[in-house]
Design goal:
With 344 residues, this protein is an alpha+beta fold. It contains eleven helices and 13 strands. The protein starts with 15 loop residues before the first helix and ends with a helix.
Length: 344
Amino acid sequence: MKERERPGLSLGKLPPEVMERYLFGMTGARSGRIVVEPALGLDFGVVRVGGEKDKGRYLIVSSDPITGVSERAGWYAVNVSANDVATSGNRPEFMQSVILFPEDASERDVKRLSSEMHRTAKALGIAIVGGHTELSPGLHRPIVVTTAFALADSYVTAAGAHAGDTLMMTKTAGVEGTAILGTDARFNGRLDRETVSGTASHFRKLSVVEEAARAYETGAVHAMHDCTEGGVLGALYEMATASGLGLEVSEADIPVSKVTRRICAELGVDPLKLISSGTLLIAVKKGQESRVRDAAAAAGSSAEPIGRFTKGKVLLTRGGEVEEVTGPPKDEIWRLHEESGEPL
């Protein structure tokens, strides 16, 4: 019997049901060294470095692509995979990269992107140990995929939250999306000069490495998750799902910068669904919130409670109404791409 045709896919992350159907169970050979396997909401994999029965050290590994931006692509590429590894509580140490340039790229283009990656990695204490670079047909902008690594003695994952934990969030919602919308000519033509100039500071907020490491050092953290595609709303759903828990969150408690609010209002964007690398979600033992807040402040960041983990559903209060979050949303950046009809 012929399999019934499934509906087409849209831009952005694959839907959870598609990942469950085709990805999570198709992971090649089995290994007793793997201690954290692929699953929805998890930021990285973990491999035991010692023997199968040894506790030893752990290798934390995460890969991420940069596909939808051309400005500061090297900066983004280093930070996004570094952030995922950092949600383990450990600073990334090594990185590999795959860089695909459009076929009309010049040596100047190669120098600009590689220099940007070098400076960004050096500032984070990351050594780039290899990779692959080529010119590829059919591309309109570079595609950069990075893989970050750390060696660690301990870690947390997005799946470790406990019922009763406080959900804390660093910085503000839509950090990365604000930077993208303010600098990409496809989107910023409708924004005034003051708003565009105000997005520059958001580039400097893209890393969560230091705040994640310092928060973990408090001993008060059960789980962490980086707010990437799908924004804060997508990340809190993924974190709750990974932990097998519910969440109660109020939109009024989620910090949003003035610049982000202006951009979102002008472009008709929901800041909670806007890609937000640079924003970290942390599951904190009840009563230990001040320790994590102080740790984030010491890293030059901020951390505030936005909700609590429960044994129920993932619930968001908006405008006085309580709505259940039943899946990660399409990121607003991808929605704008589709509506513009322009090639990536």
